[in-house]
Design goal:
- The chain has 443 residues and is mainly alpha-helical.
- The protein has 18 helices and four strands.
- Helix content is 61%, strand content 4%.
- A hairpin with a 2-residue loop joins strand 1 and strand 2.
- The radius of gyration is 30 Å and the shape is elongated.
């Protein structure tokens, strides 16, 4: 077994090979932990609390290649987190006389929480790029199919006509909602620095004159923000991550559900550009990207629930609540990174079959425009009579297999009406085109 065997993603096709996979692997976490430690020493050096030579020595010693991930993981059991053995190894690597400046004043949670924010920042950056790819592809689909009519479906049944352009514009709106939420959280990711119990007491003993200056210097070193308070048991940053990541998985899962439905053999209104094959059936081209998105949408809420549950963190440092966050947070970051990649690929390759959409509009023999007919017939027949007539003719359309238009033409009261125009589903899409235009103005 190699060191990476346990982190290979064999059962995770939704995120394996994505930028998020690399950004959240054990090696990436090790890098983030080392970055957090070196930044702490550099921040203290910048404020005159440590010699510049110490900062340089710690930075040089923080080469990930020098540290054994397997050994760190196994030794983490003794103290309950990987920072403790890493600090021992880093201190030994720095040696005298500067080893005493490693981790000085900090607690394990300061380093691990800060590393978590670094990992999140690095995992979300490529996801935001993929969101931009998806947005552009969906905007093109929405504009190209602004007026392409298709059946609207409610509770799995044909309802009234809509357009594929409006559907694609709705998908794009969800993508932008996710992008905005993730961008806000990404910009606000904070460092953690509080010392043993959130008072920064040891830093004051080492000569720090101002808590804000120290935290700000630390944040600058890492490109993160400086929080107003240590957040050892104030888990807003993690909860905010949980919310935006779970929202993204669910929102993109909604897009996937549409694609899965519309790509069914008997519907055939869309198809993935490069579907997946079957191990048993040579003829199949499965909507694999949409399938993986749907799977992620089902997993994300439970992972987020663990992170929300960890908001109930006691005392000044929690026992268990903090520890429970690490794996679900990594899983959520990986899921979201995979979701971003797969949605971009899905959107850029999606094939739209306008002919199938038109064909499916006629499946109910004209019943899809019954709402329009009810409105048009009421002034001529009265509301009650119009409803009774359409209810009866709809029943006959279903039971006798006769088109609604043919049955309507047999009614003496309707001889002078232009039924052909009323029965055209393509002319009953309401403000779908205008709504699509409005949605596409959002940037």
């Amino acid at each position: 077994m190699t060191a990476d065997d346990s982190d290979s993603g064999l059962l995770a096709p939704g995120w394996v090979g994505s930028p998020a996979a690399q950004a959240t692997g054990d090696a990436a976490w090790l890098q983030a932990l080392l970055d957090a430690e070196t930044a702490l020493t550099r921040a203290q050096a910048a404020l005159g609390l440590a010699p510049a030579e110490a900062a340089e020595a710690v930075t040089q010693a923080a080469d990930p290649a020098r540290y054994d991930l397997r050994s760190l993981a196994e030794r983490a059991r003794a103290g309950g987190n990987p920072v403790i053995p890493l600090v021992a190894d880093l201190t030994a690597a720095v040696g005298e006389p500067h080893g005493t400046y490693v981790h000085r004043g900090a607690t394990s949670q300061d380093i691990l929480d800060t590393a978590a924010m670094l990992v999140a920042a690095r995992a979300l950056e490529p996801a935001l790029t993929d969101f931009d790819r998806t947005e552009r592809a969906l905007a093109q689909l929405a504009a190209a199919h602004r007026d392409t009519p298709m059946p609207g479906r409610t509770l799995t049944q044909h309802a009234v006509p809509t357009t594929f352009g409006l559907k694609a514009a709705g998908w794009r709106s969800l993508v932008l909602d996710a992008r905005d939420r993730i961008a806000r959280v990404h910009e606000a990711l904070p460092v953690q620095l509080g010392g043993a119990a959130g008072t920064l007491a040891s830093f004051r003993e080492y000569g720090a004159q101002d808590a804000d200056a120290l935290t700000s210097a630390y944040a600058r070193e890492l490109g993160l923000t400086a929080p107003p308070l240590p957040w050892h048991t104030l888990r807003t940053p993690v909860a905010d991550l949980a919310g935006c990541l779970a929202f993204t998985a669910g929102a993109f899962g909604r897009i996937a559900e549409d694609v899965l439905t519309l790509s069914r053999t008997e519907i055939g209104e869309v198809a993935e550009g490069s579907g997946g094959g079957s191990s048993a059936m040579p003829h199949k081209t499965n909507p694999v990207r949409a399938t993986l998105l749907a799977a992620a949408a089902r997993r994300a809420p439970q992972l987020a629930a663990t992170l929300y549950g960890s908001l109930a963190a006691g005392d000044e440092r929690p026992a268990g609540a903090w520890h429970a966050e690490w794996e679900p947070l990594r899983d959520l970051l990986r899921l979201t990174g995979g979701v971003a990649r797969d949605t971009a690929e899905l959107s850029e390759g999606l094939r739209v079959n306008a002919e199938a959409m038109r064909r499916n509009l006629d499946l109910t023999g004209g019943l899809i425009v019954s709402e329009r007919l009810s409105t048009a017939l009421a002034p001529r027949l009265g509301h009650t009579r119009a409803k009774e007539l359409l209810t009866d003719l709809a029943r006959r359309t279903c039971t006798e297999g006769l088109p609604l238009k043919q049955l309507l033409a047999q009614e003496p009261e309707l001889k002078e009406m232009n039924l052909a125009a009323l029965m055209d589903p393509a002319s009953y899409t309401g403000f779908a085109g205008a709504l699509t235009d409005r949605a596409l103005k959002r940037r």
